Every structure is written in structure tokens, then in C-alpha cells.
């Protein structure tokens, strides 16, 4: 990417784009709610922990692009052992009761004002997957964001050629002044 004198790469986002920040504020929580909806319904319908984790990561990436790294509240790698722990415990608990690894238990709950709905340990496993996906995705994206564009060989050759032309022009100017 070429850089104008003393500026950011051409085509780069401005540091504080007010339009992007306004859109990010409006969309961030809606995307998180949609992510939780996908997590919740994943037991019986399309959705689940993986896609919900990717959707949450997309919301967090939008927020990071709009507001910068300073608003990141935690290291996403911290989520990986927690998610793996939740998923592993979901599989190990049935072994304590003489069932097969990852044997799902289910039942029905009737909280007031909501009505009856089914619960399942498969949902807890999905929560573990969700946490792992968010942690891994945000860690990878965070590390990719640290990579800075490098000068390509073509850019370096063009810079050297421009400098050589400039030096040749200066030499001609000085020699013509010396002849006077």
C-alpha cells in the first residue's frame, strides 16, 4: 500500500469514523441477541454453539474496528480453557452416573410467565463450544490485526528509482550551476 506523505495507507479506515461508530453502536447488541437466539435454538433447529460463536465474534470484530483495541476488555485466550472445561464436564458427568460419555439428559421446566420448555445437557455442551469459538476466533483476529503491511519489492524498487531520478536531477542542477 502506498502512503501519502506522513499519512496512513491509502484506503485505510480513519481512526475514529463517526458513521461506523454509530452503526456499530446500533448493530452490536442486535447481533449479540441474534447470536444468543441461534445458541438457544440450536438444540432442536439449525443453529448451535459454533454458528452462535461466529456471530458473536463478528459483532466483536465490528466493535473493535469501530472503536479500536482499547475497548477490548479481556484476553480472548482466557475463554478457551473455560469453554473446553464446560464441554468436557458435559461429557464426563454422565460417566459418574454410569451412562455413556456425552449421554444427554433432558427434561422440562415450567417457569412462571414463560411457559414450559425443554432443557437438555446438549445445550450446556453447545455453550462450551460457543465459548471456545469466541475465544479462538477473537484470538486469531486479534493476532492478525497486529500484522502491519510490509513494503513489497515493487514498492521498494519504485522508491529507489524515484530516489535515483531525484539524485540525478540534483546532480544535473548542481553541475549546470557550476558551469555558470
Structure commentary:
This protein has 180 residues and is mainly alpha-helical. The chain has one domain (18-148). It contains 5 helices and 2 strands; from the N terminus they run H-H-H-E-E-H-H. The protein has a two-stranded antiparallel ribbon. The longest helix has 27 residues, at 153-179. The chain is elongated and about 95 Å long. The mean pLDDT is 81.
Give a quick rundown of the structure.
By secondary structure, the chain is mainly α. It contains 5 helices and 2 strands. Strand 1 and strand 2 (117-120) form a beta hairpin.
Furnish the topology, listing elements before pairings.
Elements: H1 18-41, H2 49-67, H3 79-96, E1 106-109, E2 117-120, H4 121-146, H5 153-179
Antiparallel strand pairs: 1-2
User: What gross morphology would you assign?
Assistant: elongated
The largest β sheet comes out as: 2 strands, antiparallel
Rg, nearest Å: 27 Å
Number of helical segments?
5
Domain count: 1
Strand-residue proportion: under 5%
Strand count: 2
**Spatial gap, N to C terminus:** 43 Å
> Helix amount, in percent?
55-70%
Class based on secondary structure composition and strand pairing: mainly alpha
